Amino acid sequence: MEKELNQLKNKYSIDWREFEIQSLFEKVPTKKLPYKAQDLKNRHDKIYCLPALTAGTLNQGLAYYVPREGATILKNVISVSANGANTGVMYYQPREFTVLQDSYAIKYIHDELKPKHYTYLVSALQKSIGGRFDWSNKAGWERIKTELIKLPVKFDGKIAFDYIEEFVNTLEAYLQAKGLKTWSRAKRKRKVCKDLKQLARDRLNGINFIFMNYLKLIRLNLIKD
């Protein structure tokens, strides 16, 4: 696996550069909803059908449902937990949802990105801010926007999205080659964690993204059963 990643890096002549989060992302404005999470428990029907984001981690923070009417409907963005023990936890959200409470969404400001690009970027963001915020220092946008993330760039200094896409494709191919496609989800996760913890010990540029990227790929079902 390390050999393939080195070849990929050389193919694109990749360098690495730090970016302020606010130079790449913006907070998405949303309408305040007239609901409380505790009042929405077990509500899921034809009217209460839009997943709603909170600060939790269950189902990527989408533990409740609200009516679509009056809600800001988001898709293809990154959600950020802004309260509690999970503050700072981020997920790529490829499907429609809205923001309910104690959380917000950010999106890339320069172009429309593919799901695999967002999968990689959310891992880079989590590497930067993960574990650095808590109850008394919540990961609100004003706090995280000046943090730095390290990304692969081309010779002109622009983010190498072609490299990123092939990087994720390489991870998918690795999973399939290892036979993980036919294993149960639990066994796949255990195998991936074991392999990637070993890889993460290497000092190769970019290798520190691998562990989180694999978990994101599995969670988002980019590797199909």
UniProtKB/TrEMBL annotation:
GO molecular function: any one? DNA binding
Q: Which InterPro entries match?
A: Restrct_endonuc_typeI_TRD, Restrct_endonuc_typeI_TRD_sf
Q: Which Gene3D superfamilies does the protein's record reference? A: DNA methylase specificity domains
Report whether Hydrolase shows up as a keyword of the record. yes
Q: Where does the Type I restriction modification DNA specificity domain lie? A: 15-173
Pfam families according to UniProt: Methylase_S
Keywords carried by this UniProt record? DNA-binding, Endonuclease, Hydrolase, Nuclease, Restriction system
Q: Look up the domain of life of the source.
A: Bacteria
GO annotations under biological process?
A: DNA restriction-modification system
The UniProt family comment states:
Belongs to the type-I restriction system S methylase family.
Q: What is this protein called?
A: Type II restriction endonuclease subunit R
Q: Which organism is it from?
A: Lactococcus cremoris subsp. tructae
